[in-house]
Amino acid sequence: MSFPDSDLSMRTVSTPSPALILPHRSSSAVLNGSSTSSSTFGMETIAMVHMPPASLSHPQRCLRQSLNQQEAPIDILPDHAFLQIFTNLPTNQLCRCARVCRRWYNLAWDPRLWRTIRLTGDVLHVDRALRVLTRRLCQDTPNVCLTVETVVISGCRRLTDRGLCTVAQSCPELRRLEASGCYNVSNEAVFEVVSRCPNLEHLDISDEGLHTIAAHCSQLSHLYLRRCVRLTDEGLRFLVIYCPALRELSVSDCRFVSDFGLREIAKLEGRLRYLSIAHCSRITDVGVRYVAKYCNRLRYLNARGCEGLTDHGIEHLAKNCLKLKSLDIGKCPLVSDAGMEQLALNSFNLKRLSLKSCESISGRGLQVLAANCFDLQLLNVQDCDVSLEALHFVKRHCKRCVIEHTNPAFF
Which residues form the F-box domain (predicted)? Predict the structure, then answer.
């Protein structure tokens, strides 16, 4: 369905509905991956805002009724069907739908549709777009947008500190921010987001952005950088230098982190309690040995999918991290029963262990483990080749243990 752009030149001081974000030239502007026609006002990008579509006057209504004896097929759809359609629209198209009629206006601004704001394009005046959108979304809750949890503005080269500060001040429930490729943002704006959005879980930035966070947050104790695909060992080195108080750190799914990065993390020494390196394919026993040697107060380690980890790495962990309570080494094909024996001999405080999809683990390793780690409370052996007898053995010796398995004969 296409909508006419005949009224794009209208400008009003009212701000109930941002209809379009327009570039400075009359060429197509990409907003959220879609093209929209544009309008020119000098050489400046403007954000168009419009009043809700007004009801038709009596003569107009009579004329329309005479021309259309029945409703258009689309008008028959119930509200929930419209909402389902609108959930698939990018930000700019959703704004355009708000201009069709009063019913569409009310539906398009349903708070459930505004958990995500996605703006793209290197010619987009993104600062103004963010200001207009957040102003409209703040109408029901003055000054804050409680619905917005994700903002994607990657590649918006015209983004400045002003736009990022708008997000920080207006979106306190922000959980995900993607702003890679935005080169006109300073350290102060990144710090504004970090300090004002306490629920932030995913921050897609370059190492330079990580430097900014580290330099301004010297007391940072919990940092989760999962899926920060540009994170490198150099970024971790800078982080450890400026944030020596880190107790919990996740770099899972960061494909560029290697053993050198773990060597830097190991400099946190006894302060580190929680570490997730899941699916970091460049990590081997070498990096784990650094962590085991220096971070001897480690309580939690998630090394799921680290295929370079072997029994030797498990041995270093077991002998040095005696307070280890939770260990996930699922999908580590080189870990075998020999590693289980090392855990059994040293890790008496172990309470949670995941061996999911560890193809080299057998019932013998589980029996040795269960005979020594009496406090085990959770054991995941899904997709492992272990016998029914071994599972019953674990249950007898670790009476409080919940066993997650894929053996239909075991109850």
Answer: 71-117
